[in-house]
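hiii, so i know i said id send this last week but things got crazy w the move. better late than never?? heres the sequnce for the chain we talked about at the cafe, plus the structure i predicted for it. fair warning i was half asleep when i ran it
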Amino acid sequence: MRRSNRTARWGLLVALCGCSSSEPTTTATSFPGAADWQTTEQLVRVSAPANATSTASPIAESAASVAIQQLPKGTVGTQTCAACHPSQYESYLESSHARSAREIANSTLQAEAEWKHPQSGRIYEVNGTSSTMTHRETVPGTNTLVRWMQEADLTYEFGSGTTAHTYLFRDGAFVCESPLTWYAKTCDWDLSPGYEPRSPIMFSRVVTTGCVYCHVGSIDVVNQNPNQFIVREPAIGCERCHGAGATHAKKHQSLDQNAAIVDDIVNPARLARRESEAVCSQCHLQGALFVTAAGKDVWDFRPGDRLSDTRTDFKVANQGDGLRIVGHTEQLHASRCYQNSATLTCIDCHDPHRHNQGDVQRDRYRDACLQCHGDANCGIDQIQRQRTNANDCSDCHMPKGETNVTHAALHHHTIGVHRQSYQRIQQTPPENAHFASNLGDGDGGSAVYPITPDRQLSAAEQDRRWALAVHHLVFNDRHDDAILQELARAKRVLLDLHRGGLDDREVRAALAKDYLDAGMLEPAKQLATMIVENEPSASDAKISAIDVLAQIAFRQQDNATAMQWYQELTKYRRVAGDHYLLGVCQINAEQLDEAIASLRQALRIAPNLVVAHEQIAVLLDYQGESDQAAAHRIAVRDLRAATP
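okay and structure toks below
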């Protein structure tokens, strides 16, 4: 009889919490340790080793349970290249690429710092030794001294230091970004790009394989899961520009340089302009998002290919993010110099093997300009040019400006006459002056458009990538009116492709979510089930499909099935809502100890998740842990008092 009453009590609790979707109103964070919640004392440590069982998910339970794939395929590492190419290796070490990332033990930054953020009142601390670094955030409470504290032991330092250093930490199988970045311009710490002073929670950004592509040389990815990987080579190495070196090394290390082995190493200087440019654009062209070709991963790009063989980068019209720090290719393409030349490309000005500065850099840039322009063509007297900027062409015609990244400036790569050009020579621009800074915006009126469209792709593939781009923006909460107006057409495009026989897991996953959002559970379930049954890896599409199946089971009150799917999700991704809803299912199954553990995991990830505090308080009261329950109720009151 008592068991029946208890079941009824848990059912009422779930109803009161209003749980109806896979993602409560919160963002995902990360932490290990299932320590009891104390709003004024408990330090939540958000980092843990890759194999820590207390984390949301350890990186691998056993070698037999996982498939490790090295990306890019066939790479041998920069040190292998250095053995036969010592002079090229020495020059490479002078480049920013060689300093793109490192393990935290190899950081040379003096770490100690503490400050109170003027807008949020939060206190941030950076501490470290010669081989370690920790970041901490303390959030002051409304009714308590401290609402919560979070601290991470860092694993990697990203960035050459020319602009910034940003930091990653590991939480078991997952890698996350710290909210703190060191900026070279100010020689000081501030919030990382994309973090707002009053963001509900920090230490929340999960780093995927796509995020690290332009920072590290190679990785091992686990079960093709974009959320789980291990860094093999910490910096951008030789093979990112020259291609994977396994075949090249095998051929030239053989005694007879086996003629049967095709040497597929690439020299970008010998490529046609589009293919040469793609080598740089793989990292120096980024819009709002990119969509890969069917069955492809961003890591599948190989120097010598067209970039569109692997992916298309999309921009949102009128997104107003100004000069993008990684918009070099797009800006260059808007230049008359580029448009009027058949050969001008990145390496005419940039030597990837050196990081030239000062007079050497200025002279190299001017020499590149003088290949087409005579010195006398400049409308400004040479004496004045020499006096104002040492006759540096790029200072006027590619002026430096603030970017969409905090404390980061960049030379504008649209070559021409800018408003700042007149400022450099201390002149006022004429009223009818036409400036080069304005990039083209839009592609046939669409709010979402490819930055560098490739008309050699089939019409169906162009449509597929565009429609998926619109879906990804909407699924990731980009609800601008212009984007939402494109959604109906994007749905029709994907539906037509699917009905036309296109075998594409990404298209099925997007359509499954469309059907779910429309309340059409049966077709959503059919599409999601098809992906799960036919996809052996833990790909993005499979994870999305499992999410759909979990939500359907939850809505249909199939508690056992929902619990199974949420258990799967907690292994594949690091989302507070997954642990919370798993806890709800465990309450319904009367697995109370397991439910408490799941709710604590949710609070490790998102300490501001009010519904998790409410549920765990009731469970702890029932188990006689009234002090712990009271602490969670204090957290609830404080969080609600802080809500506008």
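btw The longest strand covers residues 146-158. thought thatd interest u
miss u guys!!
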